[in-house]
Amino acid sequence: MLQTQIKIGQQLSLNRGEWDDIIDVPTIERQNKKGETITNYILPLVFNLDAKRVEAGDLLEYDAEESPSRFFNVKIQGGNNKAVYTCVELKKFEQLRKTFFGVTDKKTGNNALQGQFAELIDNSFSDLKNTELYETLNEVYQLREQSERCMYLLAQPKLTDAEKENLSEDEKQFLASVTLRPAERLILVVVQVVWSEKGWIIPVLFSQIEGYQTFLKRKFIGNGSSEATEEPVERLCYATGERSTDVGELDISNRYSLNKMFVTTTINYASGWECEGFHKNYQVAKETQSYLERGSKYLLDNYKTRIAGVDHCIIPQLFSRSEADVETTLLRLSRKSDLLFQYKVYQENALSIEDEETDNPYWITFLGFESDGNFFKTINVIKDVSRTHFDQLIHAFRRLNNDLKLLPGLNWSNIMSAGKEKTPLEFNLFTIYGLIPVRKDKEKKNIALNLFKQILEKRPIERDNIFLHFKELILCHRFERYGSYTNIYPNTVFDFAIRNAVFQYAAFLLILKQFNLLKPMDAPQVPEQEVVPIEQLPDYQQRIEQFFTKMQYREEHKALFYLGRALNVVAYKQYEKGYTTKPVLNKLNYNGMDKAAVLRLRKDLGEKTQQFGLHRMTEYSFRQFTEYFKFEGWDKLIKPAEALFIILSGYSFYSK
After folding, report:
1. Cα-trace Rg, the chain
2. Is the dihedral of CA 378, 380, 384, 388 positive or negative?
3. Which DSSP string corresponds to 63-74?
4. Is 50 helix (H, G, I), strand (E, B) or coil?
5. Going along 428-552, which residue ranges are E strands?
6. SS (H, E, C) 262-280
7. Burial (Cβ within 10 Å: 0-12, 13-18, ≥19) of residue 571
């Protein structure tokens, strides 16, 4: 992972400016809802120290390429960091108030005695107290009362007529300066200063004040210090394995970073290590650290996907000497990840990558995380996924999806559709995610995510667990427990819910079998019996035999399938007679069908057949059930949850 970040960082560092790492580029609107082109502006907020007032300067047109760097729109740091910003987006306007005037005490209501920028210089950069920067910050603080009012007007420009009448002339003028037309937007607010004592007769940007850029370098970039340094000593950089004279402790300023998962303060997560040794355990060359930060930002900004409802960062592991273009590799991976993990109709995307290949083999890590932008917590790692296996999974899902459309008795196209418009979907891991109930009260134990991790890492999966997930899904639909789960889409028609669940699970099992991921893989072998060629069977029976072959049903499966067919006949006869809830479905034990439950269902269906005169329609199914059902050792052949699944597959099988 580190090598990938470093390689990305190196590529991003070509022709990179000195301040690019700390500058934030806002997201802007190009058109409004009426289709009008939006003009974006920057508002100069002028602290006039001569007139002792705050003024709105002339609006400047915003340039997405130049404005953020020119006005030093520094990225906002979270956590306990002091506000030190002289240019912010309008929506982050509160940061300016904190920078120059501090935070009001919530308990006492007292104002801070100085702004957070000046406070930080006092505490951590005392050698800058003799600069014009520090002197200007203290002078600006004297305008706190006027500034608070103007900042309020800027944050809430829509005032009532009565409120406008109570404004002073200066405030009315300020409000008029920041009132925009419908197709105009304020993007940035940048602070300027007028102070003739310093020769600043016209407004001067804070970035031009002596001491400001020195502060930024020392605070955010890590150089520009005036302190004397010791004789440089060569040390080993643990990220690259190379020796350098600028190796020091890993110090990541951005809390939203892949590198923040490396523990440097919490000893509980680094047991056996000396506290004083952290700077050695995490020592990295300064240039490499820049590469790591740039690489992390690039990955988190551009290459994320959601797996089982959890954000994951896509990180390829290339050969150390590979000359592959990382950006091209990541772009392909991102598009392929969408095919496997996302809810999309992606025919065009699938076709566009059909022939995309690379000569550089790699492994993939999917790093699952939680973050609100102020912290980074790793909650899942799917590691060492081979590109070959990844590609094979994508193609296997697509091939099976196309094959099942042609298989009689499934109505696969209807199963794989969404909404009233019947929008066609593709069969992938996102589809599977909607089949594995994840309880709201146990979100941290994401069973779907654990299952996908096993699939991607090619680790065997307990066959019985798949049917337990199926049982839980059917119980959810049967008793409408949708409020208890985060990922199950409600289906008000129980028959359709059964059909979709049964056949999508059946398809999922075929995928797992194809990749030898089920354990135990093989059931007890039974001697082959002489069978009638399929082409000699009636059309209805041909469809069933094709289904058996595709789903790899054994004799015990066939017995339960035919019992499900008989259940279907009785249920629909009840529906025709006005029993819309199909009471016979209550004869099923939705927690699983053991041998006793299966035989009891056979008896109940026989009685219903007698009651409704359905002998002609159920006779064949009952005969097949009797032929295939094994009274001896039944419970060793098939578990109750799987038996429920097979019965419902027979119940849902389409028959003209």
Report:
1. 34
2. negative
3. -TTTHHHHTT-B
4. coil
5. 461-462, 518-519
6. CCCCCHHHCCCCCHHHHHH
7. buried
Amino acid at position 179, single letter: T
For residues 514 and 506, is the Cβ–Cβ distance under 8 A?
no
Q: Is 133 exposed, middle or buried (0-12, 13-18, 19+ CB in 10 A)?
A: buried
Average pLDDT, stretch 424-438?
92
**Per DSSP, what are the bridge partners of residue 206?**
none
Looking at the DSSP bridge assignments, the partners of residue 485 are 439
Give 22's pLDDT tier (boundaries 50, 70, 90): confident
Give tens-digit pLDDT for 304-326.
999 999 999 999 886 555 566 77
Rounded to whole angstroms, the Cα distance separating 393 from 634 reads 34
In angstroms, the CA 649 to CA 656 distance is 16
CB 595, CB 635: distance < 8 Å: yes
d(CA 165, CA 161) in angstroms, rounded, equals 6
- Global confidence as pTM: 0.78
**Torsion region of 229: left, alpha or beta (phi above 0 gives left; psi -120 to 50 gives alpha):** beta
Token duo for residue 392: 């094979």
- For every residue of 345-375, DSSP letters joined together read --HHHHHHTTT---SS-EEEEEEEEE-SSS-
What single letter denotes the amino acid at residue 137? L
pLDDT in tens, 151-173: 777 766 577 777 777 777 777 77
Is the peptide bond between 520 and the residue preceding it cis, with omega within 30 degrees of 0? Answer: yes
Q: Which two tokens stand for residue 36?
A: 């009008």
- Give CA torsion, residues 29, 30, 32, 37, to 10 deg: 150
Of the candidates 570, 443, 461, the residue with the CA atom closest to the CA atom of residue 509: 461
Instruction: Dig out the tokens for 632 from the structure.
Output: 């001896």
Token pair in block for residue 175: 């409000």
In the DSSP assignment, the letter for residue 30 is S
